[in-house]
Amino acid sequence: MPFYRFEFRDGTRTQTMPDIDLPDLDAAYEEAKRSTRDLLMEATLKGEERTGWACRVYDRDGQRILSVNFEDIVLNRADDDAGTGLP
After folding, report:
1. Which Pfam families match (predicted)?
2. What is the Cα gyration radius of the chain?
């Protein structure tokens, strides 16, 4: 299985997660959306500002292969691939 690295940006900080193996790019995209929704819910409950927040996904070679912006999740655009960088 391919390895993917997820990076979460909150406008000022970046948190890089350990590489995970997933079956394919579609699975990585679904995981990015799920993780972004979870973080969004957490931030909303804490009353945190979410402007500029994003999840970036990189392949084993360090190439960014997709991104999910928190605004896309809020506006429910992530399901139609708007702004995700998917090929």
Report:
1. DUF6894
2. 12
Domain range list for the chain: 3-80
71 CB contacts (<8 Å, ≥6 apart)? Answer: 50, 77, 83
> Is 6 in contact with 31 (CB distance < 8 Å)?
yes
Determine the Cα–Cα distance for residues 80 and 16; give it in Å rounded to an integer. Answer: 26
Measured at the alpha carbon of residue 68, what is the angle toward residues 37 and 44, in degrees to the nearest 5? 35
For residue 27, with 0-12 CB atoms within 10 Å meaning exposed, 13-18 middle and 19 or more buried, which class applies?
middle
